[in-house]
Automatic annotation (TrEMBL):
This is Dihydroxyacetone kinase-like protein. Its EC number is 2.7.1.-. One of its GO terms (molecular function) is transferase activity. Keywords: Kinase, Transferase. PROSITE patterns: DHAL. The lineage of its organism: Bacteria, Bacillati, Actinomycetota, Actinomycetes, Micrococcales. It comes from Subtercola frigoramans. Residues 6-207 form the DhaL domain. It comes from the Bacteria. The keyword Kinase applies. InterPro entries: DhaK_L_YcgS, DhaL_dom, DhaL_dom_sf, Dihydroxyacetone_Kinase.
């Protein structure tokens, strides 16, 4: 039971779709505590990724696709979120290396490396009202699910649920990083746009894994 390049392609494609679908919502969130460009930034970035995804060679492995996302987001997304997410995907691609299939441990390593990359780049901690408030609970939940013996889909679903709760948890917070930090208490009551978009991206990972998942031979269904 594992997830390979088909899943990563599907994940990236679904990420582009949900980012486009939630573009206005992300713009609105960023307008409330930032400069209103987050939905635009990510939509531009993932559209550029989609334009390049077909160029991947037939023998591409998950790490190749993750690296393509990284370099494309870094070069096309203006704003803080481009280098942050770009570094996350870059570290994720390094973590999975040349493995053609990702098992649960590889997925946890991938998510952990992504989070660590964003932290390395932006120096945010949990509670700073940033995308890290989605990523870190997602990593922790994925690691716990792995330790519980859950399968790949369940690991990603646990990550997605925790990321969604993490995004919601940013609402009562004061921001300590990014543009929203200039607002002080006026940021209270607003969800962080980057935490919300990261939760959408992590949900896309779980949804596509559930759709693609082929149970191991010999299992009942
Ligand atoms: P900008 O703030 O430059 O306009 P975006 O609007 O695209 O860039 O992205 C804003 C999001 O980036 C924020 O909602 C937050 O989640 C994230 N962010 C900003 N600074 C940091 C940081 N230092 N660490 C982690 N995430 C950050
Ligand atoms: Mg912005």
């Amino acid at each position: 039971m594992s997830l390979g390049i088909t899943w990563v392609r599907d994940w990236v494609t679904e990420s582009a779709r949900v980012v486009a679908e939630h573009r206005v919502e992300l713009i609105t969130l960023d307008r409330e505590i930032g400069d209103g460009d987050h939905g635009e930034n990510l939509d531009r970035g993932f559209s550029a990724v989609m334009a390049k995804l077909g160029d991947l060679p037939p023998d591409a492995v998950p790490g190749d696709a993750l690296k393509l996302v990284a370099t494309t987001l870094i070069s096309t997304v203006g704003g803080a979120s481009g280098p942050l997410l770009g570094t996350a995907y870059l570290k994720a691609s390094v973590a999975v290396g040349k493995e053609p299939e990702l098992d649960g441990a590889a997925l946890v390593a991938m998510l952990t490396a992504a989070r660590d990359g964003a932290v390395l780049r932006g120096k945010a901690e949990v509670g700073d009202k940033t995308m890290i408030d989605s990523w870190t609970p997602a990593v922790d939940a994925a690691a716990a699910a792995l330790a519980d013996g859950r399968n790949e889909v369940e690991i990603l679903q646990a990550a997605a649920d925790a990321a969604a709760a993490g995004a919601e948890s940013t609402e009562p917070l004061i921001a300590h990083k990014g543009r929203a930090s200039y607002l002080g208490e006026r940021a209270i009551g607003h969800r962080d746009p980057g935490a919300q978009s990261s939760a959408l991206i992590i949900r896309a990972a779980a949804d596509t894994a559930a759709a693609d998942f082929v149970p191991a031979a010999g299992s009942e269904n």
